[in-house]
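hey m, so remember when u said the tokens were messed up on ur end? i reran from scratch. heres the input so u can diff it against urs
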Amino acid sequence: MAQRKGAVQQLATSRKLLLAVILAGVVLVMISAIRFQSPELLGQAKVLTDFDAFHIAGRLAAQGRAADAYNVSTLLQVQREMSGTQSFMPWTYPPPFTLAMQYLAGLPIGAAFVFFALSTFAFYLWVLHRIAGKWLPAVVIAVMPAIVLNLRTGQNGFLIAGLIGWFLLAFRDKRVIAGLPLGLLVIKPHLAAGVGLITLLQRRWVLLGWAGLIGLTLLALSTWIYGISIWMDFRNAVGEAGGFLARGYYPLFRMNSIFAAAYTFGLGATAAMAMQIAGALFALGLLIKASRSRIAYHHLAALTCLASLFVSPYGYDYDLTILGVALAFIVPDLLERCSGLELWVLLLLTWFVCGYGIGWNTAMAVSQPNTGVSLDQESSGLSLIAPVLALLCWALTRILWRQRAEGES
């Protein structure tokens, strides 16, 4: 048993394994860039994937048509013309993210994808290394399916998780620079609920002031460039996306929200949303309770990440890179207190959570991991990510509580 656990810990610190993963990731990005730019070179047809939506919205903005990115009928037509597919991906990112994509869209899509995917991946690994240190390989392996998904699709999971991890590091060290990543999270505010809440609870007013200044600057800049009417367009797009969600048009099996799980198990949209709200309040309530207790900071940081995953009904599997940040804070505790069998069980649970969407796509013989909507029918497939994620959180809590009890005895 001790030898088995020792082998696991040796694997968890293997630099060769980490290097192999990074190199494989670079290769995957290069192949994916060809699939974005010229899929015919690989004998494949063009399929609308996440970064296509980013690039298309950026191109529309660069043409002075940012409002069209938020209009369903116009965006649908443009996406079909540019990609040659019948898929549709609504654009519901706030205008500051549209502005960032506008400048990125100045590059051909293949080059823009390589730059965005590799730069955000490097940022994510840097943040994880600062948190986990020598245990970085263990964290990377634990969330490998989510990493592969982001490297393939060009989603922003690395960027958002990296900003959350950077904030938590600076917040721990009581550095005002924590206001920068917190302010930048205005590009995806529903995932900033956890970090925003602990900032309020611990009354870090100066930090909140800097975060507010940065966020307002981004909002003002995008308003100045696109005009104040862009916010009405954005609001309408979010409202339409809410309608698509209520009708089950999104690929709910790829979502990690309680809403998605409840809906695919047969509850109506209203009941599923009620469960989502209850789950979000419960998660944030746990975070409030932990923040007011004497819980160790690295445990509080992990809980902040985990609670954030239960807030939004729109959470996707690519957002589970945030789970990697949570694990980075507690991986030394887990490796010290868990048996070899427990570590393998935790790994299997984590892989299931991060890879269920990919697995379902593979089982259904779908060639691309799609986050678009089908405008004429409900998405098929059960959403099991949220229940298993809750089980994983329970298991982690039990292990960490066991460690605390042993330390106090």
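this time it looks ok to me. The chain has 20 helices and no strands. if urs says something different then somethings off w ur setup not the seq
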